[in-house]
Amino acid sequence: MSARLIDGKAFAARLRERVAAAVPDFVATMDRVPGLAVVLVGDDPASQIYVRSKHKATVEAGMASFEHRLPETTSQEELVALVERLNDDESVDAILVQLPLPAGIDDKAVIDTIDPDKDVDGFHVINAGRLAVGEDGLVSCTPLGCLMLLKDQLGDLSGLEAVVVGRSNIVGKPMAQLLLRENCTVTLAHSRTRNLAEVVGRGDILVVAVGQPELVKADWIKPGATVIDVGMNRQSGEDGKTRLLGDVAFAEAKEVAGAITPVPGGVGPMTIAVLLRNTLVAAQLRAGMPPPAGL
Ligand code: GUN
Prior knowledge:
Elements: E1 4-5, H1 8-30, E2 35-41, H2 45-60, E3 64-70, H3 76-88, E4 94-97, H4 107-111, H5 125-133, H6 141-154, E5 161-165, H7 172-181, E6 185-189, H8 196-200, E7 205-208, E8 226-229, E9 233-236, E10 242-245, H9 250-253, E11 259-260, H10 268-286
Parallel strand pairs: 1-11, 2-3, 2-4, 5-6, 5-7, 7-8, 8-11
Antiparallel strand pairs: 9-10
Helix pairs in contact: 1-10, 2-10, 6-7, 6-10
The protein binds guanine.
C-alpha cells in the first residue's frame, strides 16, 4: 500500500496566509509593522538563496524585512556589535543570524548575544532551556514545522512512540523536546546508536534529521508509521543535473509508511512559514499582546 503524501508546501502556504491575515491586527494596535532582521555574513551560495527567500516571504506577509549583509572578513566583535544594535532597535522584533558563519567566528557567542525575546530561531540557550522545562518561548522553526505537520496528520500524539534520528541543537534536540511536550514516548537516536534499524522500527512517528542521503531504509520503518524527512542533500546525477535527496529512501519507504513527507515539498517550505509565524509571535509578545490563536 502506498503512503499518504504529506504536502508541506500546501500546509506552509496556508500558514503564511494565516500569518499575513493576523498582521493588520498588530499594525492597528501598535501603529507599526512587525520587523525581522536577517544577518548574513560572507557569500555562501546556499545561504544567499535562503536569505533572499526569507526577505521575499517577510515582505509578502506584510512585515518589515531588514537585511544586513556583511563581508566574509567581518570580525566576531563587529558581528556582536551589530546584534547588540538590533537588540536595542525598537522596530526589530526578531533577529536571525544565518548559519553557518565563516570560520573563526564562534556561533554560540553570537547567538547568545541575541535578546532571547527576539531570538526568532529559538537557538539561544535561554530558549532551549525554556523548551526543556516546558515554559513558553521561541522554538526553532524546522522542528516546530515538523510538529505542525504531525499534529495535522495524527491529531493527538499522546502515548505514541516517537523516534528522532539526529541530535543537533537546531533540529533533533528541540524536536525530541516538542514530542515529549506532546506526551510521546521519545527515543533520540544518533550516529552512535546501536542497532539503529531496530530502534527506528519502534516509531509510530519517525523524524529523521541527519544530513545523510537515504540513510533510513524502507525495511527499518514500522508499517503505517508517519515519517517526517528533514534531509535536504544535494547530489549530482549522471545527467549532470542536481537532485535533492532526503535522509529516507523515499521510493521504497512510501510503500511501508502510513504517511510521509516528500523531498522537496515536505519539511523545506515549513521552515520559512514558521519563521514568519515566529516573527509575528515575537512581535505580539514584545508588545504585551496575547499570541494570535490558530498560529
Ligand atoms: N542555516 C540553515 N538553516 C538555518 C536556520 O534555520 N536558521 C539559521 N539562522 N541559519 C540556518
